[in-house]
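Appendix B, Record 12. Input sequence as logged:
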Amino acid sequence: MKKKTVGQPKSGDGDTVHSPLVTYASMISLLTLCPPFVILLWYTMTAADGSVSETWNYLKQNGVQGFLDIWPRPTATAYKIIVVYGLFEAALQLLLPAKTVYGPISPTGHQPVYKANGVAAYLVTLITYMALWWFGIFNPTVVYDHLGEIYSALIFGSFVFCILLYIKGHLAPSSTDSGSSGNIIIDFYWGMELYPRIGKYFDIKVFTNCRFGMMSWAVLALTYCIKQYEENGKVSDSMLVNTALMLIYVTKFFWWEAGYWNTMDIAHDRAGFYICWGCLVWVPSVYTSPGMYLVNHPVNLGIQLAISILLAGILCIFINYDCDRQRQEFRRTNGKSTVWGKAPSKIEASYTTTTGETKRSLLLTSGWWGLSRHFHYVPEILAAFFWTVPALFNHFLPYFYVIFLTILLFDRAKRDDDRCRSKYGKYWKLYCDKVPYRIIPGIY
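Logged structural output:
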């Protein structure tokens, strides 16, 4: 019988990611509410002036039929854009020169091996996209003009993709980190495999999370900027600040991509509807939505305010990066690196794998990681606020991503704490005694 990975729902014997009620509520919400929300978000941002009340009044007057009328049908153009983009990113993932990187050892003793070429793929993608526009080969405004159709195609196409992942997990799992909970809905939602692959080197979660999802964030940020330029003959300072901060953040992500492969998304959450549909659909639509709003709502901030917001956003992104860098360096040197110029404070913890093997871990309790157990979420949320605030406060909807991100990260912090408590036992209690706050120092 195959073992379950830590953090995945089990059947009947205990630990789930959340309580059964919350687990099923989240599954039902994602499966039923998120797809129509993506379409309503796009419609409101592009056709209803960003006004939630205008969309609400439309739906109240026209009912279900009105909603069906605004849902764009997937078109050949939309599928062509998605397929070409997906194949291009897959080719870069497979073919670009790469450094070999090893992921964390799983509870079953499996250690994934990755090809780390994210920065190269990122640069090639953006340079190619801009060159296609500059030389008149492809106009990115086509992507914006077919955005609703693209999101619609992604909604349905990603659902089929997740069905195929579910079938693969049953018939041809890639590693020992796979198995069934005994519940078909949970297996589809949370996933069957932790590290699904096609062949030896094409890691599916790296593709969905990084090379399709995160890469599309940068591509769409540029698309919105170009669309505004094509429409108005110039780019507003608000759009420049928004685009610059988003690109800096995504650049930081790819610079740190190998570190991301050690996070909960990759090392603990399986490749199911929750992760894969979210990265293929939710990231391109929701995460980029402040820029989508600014296309038709340029705001003149003025040089002083624009520079102030830009610098504040850059500072938050840097602190977020430095938090991750500090912990990575601590792990890489086995606790022998300096933290803020001093020897690090740490707790030596041990844990037992599912195979009965005893392992050792070091828990950092100084630097950023002495302020709170998940302090890196604070600058991440603030960075999202700063690339949204150029839209000012005429409408609530541009801030949906900031609110969603806050809820997501607070939930993730709890899930990570629960997982670590189960993994480290008494050592985690010592860690929490030394670092008592979960996210916000002095408050929570």
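The longest strand covers residues 346-352.
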